[in-house]
Design brief:
The structure holds two protein chains of two kinds. Chain A is α+β, with helices and mostly antiparallel strands. The model of chain A has no long low-confidence stretch (mean pLDDT 89). A three-stranded antiparallel sheet of chain A has the order 2-3-5. The longest helix of chain A is centred in the first third of the chain and has 19 residues. Chain A has five helices and five strands. Chain A folds into two domains: 33 residues, no CATH class; 102 residues, 2-Layer Sandwich (Alpha-Beta Plaits). By secondary structure, chain B is mainly alpha-helical. Chain B has one domain. Chain B is 70% helix and 0% strand. Chain B contains 13 helices and no strands. Classes of the chains: A alpha+beta, B mainly alpha. The interface between A and B is medium-sized, with 19 and 15 residues.
């Protein structure tokens, strides 16, 4: 049969895969399929996701002005925002008190969220960030609604930004921000 | 199992002996099935694909079988709306009956047998054909075009490969001079070398034929998973699917054991008298080891080769394997008559 050599080559391929999986340290080492296989045995061994992986969304509350852009652009309507206006002291002496928006409620319902990232992209004030954390499953679906404090906690897991590109300018403020 | 067990057996009433035989038969079918499923399906095939297979249920996934068993048991038993209820329901049992009848003919020691028929291997091959009816019943009774196509492909394939299977065994029978399975084992012992050496061609034809009889890849057109959604098994769920699954692996185990008996010397170990008393206890273990060896090849081929197309499959059987098997018979018979082995 002219196909016979090819069939034996095929057997060799699977045999070689078997050998490499069961004896990753060569013929003299102990048989250890856990080491030789490509499987990462998840709950016992955890691989770090890439830094830009989209795991969960974190909120930097100081930057948020409750402009509602993220809530409006979210395709699933899973962001709930409530805020009120407050007066902040003037920046220079003798100035007018400034209006600032303060958040009362900023919840993201991760049971609805589809992790598209539109809210992060659209935020003009860089208040939302991606974090590579993904282990936040809950037993009750209501616990999948992360409130403002929890979203703020996720900020600790947001990776550092890389250095700015060469030639980019840092914003120079005429009056230091308070 | 003479001296130790015979006195105990002699005191049992017929119904007690029947129950005992039933239990031992059940164990003899289910234990190798479980071993094959775990060792080869879960572990060996996984390692050949550079993955680990089940690892969570029990140490290294040994209890995964139990978990799967429980999973299948608690599923709903679905009957398609227009299915032929009796045919659909009885099909898995027909396949299983064929397997249990097959294991009856398998000797595991000089006295360790269920039945001792003089037409041992003939009976075994005849009874293994009953599963073809079960497959056809499954395909037809499901009232689904996928199942019907799968069932028809299965019938064509199984019937086509019955012939090379039988013919490959005839060479062994000619050399042994008897159809009795025990006689074949003893003939291999007196011949000096296991029949795999002089009957190498017959062994290869046997291996290919049982691969096809078990509808294992590369001969799994009836179940072509990517094409027919498991073919004749499509409409089955829960317990009935489990019965088909067990039937498939149990038949693989029993066919491997038959191959071991015919070609690898059965329960005999070299340099040890096969009719010795203690072989009744060691024989099953030896037979199990040889069965695992042959089943290794079955599953190795399963994971390595792509599927045959139906016409390629039929061409292989009718135009290649049958003439080869016939030539094997002619050569074997000629040499036997000429040299009077």
């Amino acid at each position: 049969m002219p196909q016979l050599p090819g069939m034996l080559v095929g057997l060799g391929v699977t045999a070689r895969a078997f050998y490499r999986t069961v004896f990753p340290d060569g013929p003299l080492g102990p048989p250890s399929p856990s080491k030789g296989a490509h499987t990462v045995q998840y709950p016992h061994v955890k691989e770090a996701p890439p830094t830009r992986a989209r795991g969960v969304i974190a909120l930097h509350e100081d930057n948020c002005t409750a402009c509602m852009l993220c809530a409006r652009e979210c395709p699933d309507w899973c962001i709930y925002i409530e805020g009120h206006k407050e007066l902040a002291p003037p920046r220079r002496a003798g100035g007018k008190p400034r209006q600032k928006n303060k958040l009362d409620r900023f919840d993201i319902d991760f049971a609805l969220c589809m992790f598209c990232g539109i809210c992060v992209e659209v935020c003009p004030f860089d208040a939302l960030f991606w974090s590579p954390e993904f282990e936040f499953s809950e037993l009750k679906i209501a616990d999948m609604l992360h409130d403002k404090s929890r979203l703020g906690d996720w900020m600790e897991t947001v990776p550092e930004f890389g250095p700015y590109e060469g030639g980019s300018e840092q914003k120079v403020r005429k009056v230091p921000a308070t | 199992m003479a001296s130790l067990v015979q006195p105990m057996l002699a005191d049992l009433a017929y119904w007690q002996e029947t129950v005992l035989r039933g239990l031992v038969g059940l164990v003899a079918v289910l234990l190798p099935t479980g071993a094959l499923v775990y060792l080869f399906l879960y572990k060996m095939m996984s390692f050949m694909q550079s993955r680990l297979g089940p690892m969570e249920a029990g140490p290294f996934g040994q209890l995964q079988l139990l978990a799967d068993f429980g999973k299948f048991l608690q599923k709903e038993d679905i009957f398609p709306a227009k299915a032929d209820r009796f045919v659909f329901g009885a099909a898995p049992f027909v396949v299983l009956v064929s397997t249990f009848l097959l294991v009856l003919a398998l000797p595991a020691g000089p006295d360790a047998h269920f039945i001792d028929v003089n037409t041992g291997i003939y009976y075994a091959l005849a009874v293994s054909s009953i599963s073809v009816i079960g497959t056809l019943m499954a395909g037809w009774g499901s009232n689904s075009k996928y199942s019907l196509l799968g069932g028809l492909r299965a019938a064509a394939q199984l019937i086509a490969y019955e012939l090379p299977l039988v013919l490959s065994v005839v060479g062994v029978v000619i050399m042994a001079g008897t159809l009795n399975m025990k006689g074949i084992v003893e003939a291999q012992n007196s011949f000096g070398v296991w029949f795999i050496v002089p009957q190498f061609v017959g062994f290869l034809i046997f291996l290919v034929s049982i691969q096809a009889e078990l509808t294992q890849p590369p001969f799994d057109m009836p179940q072509a998973e990517s094409e027919l959604v498991t073919g004749y098994l499509t409409e089955y769920s829960g317990m009935r699917f489990l019965l088909f699954f067990i039937g498939e692996f149990a038949t693989a185990a029993v066919f491997s054991a038959i191959g071991a008996t015919l070609f690898l010397g059965g329960w005999a170990i070299p340099f040890v008298d096969p009719s010795a008393e203690f072989m009744n206890w060691i024989g099953p273990l030896v037979l199990a080891a040889k069965m695992v060896l042959i089943a290794f090849f079955i599953f190795w081929f399963r994971i390595t080769y792509p599927r045959f197309r139906e016409d390629q499959l039929q061409k292989l059987a009718w135009k290649f394997l049958i003439p080869l098997a016939l030539a094997n018979i002619v050569v074997t018979a000629s040499i036997k008559v000429a040299i009077d082995l």
